[in-house]
Automatic annotation (TrEMBL):
Keywords, alphabetical: Glycosyltransferase, Transferase
CDD domains on file: PRTases_typeI
Keyword Transit peptide carried by entry: no
Keyword Transferase: yes
Protein name (Swiss-Prot/TrEMBL): Phosphoribosyltransferase domain-containing protein
A Pfam short name: Pribosyltran
Domain Phosphoribosyltransferase span(s) in chain numbering: 5-149
One Gene Ontology MF term: glycosyltransferase activity
Amino acid sequence: MTEREILTWDDFGRAGRALAQQIADDGWRPSLILAVARGGLFAAGSISYALDVKNLHVVNVEFYTGVDERLDTPVMLGPEPSVADMTGAHVLIVDDVADTGETIKLVRDFCTAHAAEVRTAVIYEKPHTIINCEYVWKRTDKWINFPWSSLT
């Protein structure tokens, strides 16, 4: 069996606070937080509370179909985020992991066309990702078990 990174709920709490602290320490304040569903929902909620940013939106992207199994390219599912809400905004895209980076790149490219500024935050970043996120809690090359997707 492949060695795995296990994220507990306690670790998740630490990760959310640490990411919010990184953003605050950077002196940057998002005007809109965009959660990448499903994995980014928990992290985005945590960061939005910690930074007191109530403008929280969701984008649903399908890419992974199983453990280390994915579609050829990620697909943004409807409804897409509102361009009107993004225009001129400072958007923070939040996801659980930047594995290949393809999902975050898709969302970032969509947002960049409309927003004033776009930054990214993830709990985990893999070494082979095509995206280097501005805010990262931990880097790993292991498969990750998240508490919201694990039965034990």
